[in-house]
Each structure stands twice: as C-alpha cells, then as structure tokens.
Specification:
By secondary structure, this protein is an alpha/beta fold. It has one domain: Rossmann fold. The protein is built from 12 helices and 8 strands. Strands 3-4-2-5-1-6-7-8 form an 8-stranded mixed sheet, sandwiched between helices. β7, α9 and β8 form a beta-alpha-beta unit. It is globular and about 50 Å long.
C-alpha cells in the first residue's frame, strides 16, 4: 500500500534538461486510453491536469480545456483543487462571495450537497479553489483509513440534473495526500510541460508516482498525454526542449503545443477564457486543437450530438 504522507514535493537537483530522463512505457500504454475506462453516456470522464512543478500552465490548460469542451456541447465541470484558486479568477468568479460553494466544501462536506457555480450556456460549471485547501492534507490525514478516497467518494455523490461528460481537475503543485486523492479519483492525467530549461526535471518522480498509484489503488489510471506549453519555436531553446521532450516521452506527447502569447497571459485578468477573450487568436486555436486531439484519443466525436 502507498503510505500517502510520504509523498512530498521533490523535483531533483540536476541542472539541465537531460539530467533526469523519464522512461516512457510502450506507446500502446500511452495511447490506448479508452481500453480500461471506456466512457458511457451516464459516466463522467475525470481528467486531472497535474504537475508538481508550479508555473507550467496547469490552470490555464484546465480552464481553457473545460471551456473548449463546453463549446463543443459536452457538459463540463471544472474542479479547482489548487489553494491559489486561480481558476475562479480566470473565469471572473469571486470565490469569496457569500453563498459560493468551493472545492473544499465538496471535498470535506459532500453531505451538504454544495452546488457548483453555473457560468451559463455552453460554459463549464465550477467549484472554485479555496485557501482552506492549504491544510487539506492535514484534514484528510485526520480521516483515517479512508483518507485517500475522500475525493472519489465526494465525486460519486454528485447528482446534477444532467450528468457531466467531463470533470477537469486543476491540481495543486505538490504530491501530497490531496494529489493522491485526485489521482485515485481520476481516469486520466494530462501533464503540462513548460517549454523552458529544466522542462523534464522531476518528471520521473511524477511518472513513478502515477505507476505506483495505478498498481495499488487505481488500475484504470492512464496518462492521456503530455502537453508542451509556453512554446516559442522562434528560439533555439524552445526547439531543443521540444526535441528532448518528444525524444524521451514519444507518443505520449500531444501533437498540439500551446504557444506563449500575450492574449493567453491577459485573459485571466479579464475574467474570461481564451475563447471569450480572443476567440480566433493563436491561443484559442491551440486549445481547440488540443481538445479535438483529446476527443480523438478517447474515441469521442468532436461535437457532442444534442439529445433528441
């Protein structure tokens, strides 16, 4: 069994991209994502956006992936489990407003049936992050033997009028008990990798953690793909990082890369997804392409058919 308190941030000490070289499993293990978790209309596909390193584009990717799925007709829930709570700010929601239920409420008080924030038609629902999540590992540790399965049970208790097709989880930059809960509750993980020096540093530990959780708790967990973010292929550094990532991780890496753009940096300050802020710009086109690539890997149509 995994001793969950032992998980802690540790990104290694090597100074270069090639210092730590993650060994990718056979391509079939990376791409056959629908084999063990074949989606059915009545079940949600749960995708954790995760990397223990901060500043790699987790929140940006979680926000815009959920927004893109909603635009394609899929019912999406964005669950922000990062104590920074930036997903709410990115979507124009005041997480401190009276009556707003947070992800902390869902995690530790599911019996109260906290309701997510509805952002409107063709937009995702949202459970905002909460500063209370800073002590989530302590709160979970106090729950004893069930501490690792609290999120899975909380998500199972959700009873929306119309089931969610996707639940996208914005994960904290750590490998603590809360992240362990996320991985046990999820079907797939999406790993953003910043297109910068030290891009692969610490990735071996994350992949080993995923494999351990798969063996001990969640055999259906799979790596949906690794996403290169903040790329600028005009620079030699970006070109070298992309080459290194694709060499080490092979077909696990999405074909789509997210560029470094001013519009992607600006849209959170306007409380809008990139699709509302700059619908036809490079950032929106990239997240649209990523969504289509994900749907293809999952064996789902690009547009969900309307219920008859």
């Amino acid at each position: 069994m995994i001793d969950s308190p032992a998980f802690s941030p540790n990104e290694g000490s090597g100074p270069g991209v090639s210092r730590e070289t993650p060994q990718a499993p056979a391509p079939t293990a990376a791409l056959d994502v629908s084999r063990e978790t074949s989606p059915t209309p009545a079940s949600s596909i749960i995708i954790a956006v995760i990397n223990q390193k901060g500043g790699v584009g987790k929140t940006t990717s979680a926000v815009n992936l959920s927004a893109s799925l909603a635009l394609k007709g899929y019912r999406a829930l964005l669950l922000d489990l990062d104590p920074q709570g930036n997903a709410a700010t990115s979507l124009g929601i005041d997480r401190y407003a009276e009556g707003i239920a947070t992800s902390h409420d869902l995690l530790l008080s599911p019996q109260d049936h906290p309701q997510p924030v509805s952002l409107g038609t063709n937009k995702p629902d949202l459970y905002p992050g909460s500063v209370s999540l800073i002590r989530a590992d302590i709160d979970l540790l106090a729950l004893g033997e069930r501490r690792d399965f609290v999120l899975r049970d909380a998500l199972a208790s959700l009873a929306p009028a119309e089931p969610y097709d996707f639940i996208i989880i914005d994960s904290p930059p750590s490998l603590g008990i809360l992240t362990l809960n996320i991985l046990i509750a999820s079907h797939h993980v999406l790993i953003p990798i910043q297109c910068e020096y030290l891009a692969l540093e610490g990735l071996t530990m994350l992949l080993e953690t995923l494999e351990e959780i798969r063996r001990a708790h969640n055999p259906a967990l799979s790596v949906l793909g690794c996403l290169i973010t903040m790329s600028d292929l005009r620079t030699n550094l970006s070109q070298q990082v992309v080459a290194d990532v694709r060499t080490h991780l092979g077909e696990r890496v999405f074909n789509t890369m997210i560029p470094r753009t001013v519009r992607l940096s600006e849209c959170p300050s306007h409380g809008q997804s990139i699709f509302d802020y700059d619908r036809w710009g490079a950032g929106a086109r990239s997240y649209d392409a990523l969504t289509r690539e994900i749907l293809t890997r999952l064996g789902l149509p690009e547009k969900k058919r309307s219920a008859s």
